[in-house]
Amino acid sequence: MSRVSQPELKKFMDRRCYLNLQGGRQVSGVLRGFDMFLNLVVDQAHEELGGGQRKPCGMIVIRGNSVSSMELLDSMKV
User: Fold this and answer.
1) What pTM was estimated for this model as a whole?
2) 42: in domain
3) Which of 4, 58, 59, 62 has the highest Cβ tally under 10 A?
4) What's the sign of the alpha-carbon dihedral 64, 71, 42, 59?
5) Distance set, CA 59 to CA 22, 25, 26, 28, 51 (Å)
6) Buried-exposed string 26-54: b where 16+ CB fall within 10 A, e elsewhere
7) Checking phi first, is residue 66 left (phi over 0); if not, alpha (psi -120 to 50) or beta?
């Protein structure tokens, strides 16, 4: 039985992230938490509507299987 390793999300904690979601939606905000299913808690979230427009959403939970990709917006401290 092979074990699939989970993505290392600890380095994204309390940092601004940009998320591409299924269905062509984009969200940005601060990652506050995650679980073993990669469900994410994002604070200060904004839905990116295109054309420079953003819709504030507050704190949201995003199902892990909805996330296509995740990008760190803050610079990493090494």
Assistant:
1) 0.83
2) yes
3) 62
4) negative
5) 19, 17, 15, 11, 23
6) bbbbbbeebeeebebbbeebbbbeeeeee
7) alpha
Rounded to whole angstroms, how far apart are CA atoms 46 and 58? Answer: 7
Provide the residue range defining the domain that includes 55. 13-72
Of 62, 21, 23, the residue nearest 42 (C-alpha): 62
pLDDT of residue 1: 53
Q: Is residue 78 part of a domain?
A: no
CATH number for the domain that contains residue 45: 2.30.30.100
* Model confidence pLDDT, tens digit, residues 35-64: 988 999 999 999 999 888 999 999 999 999
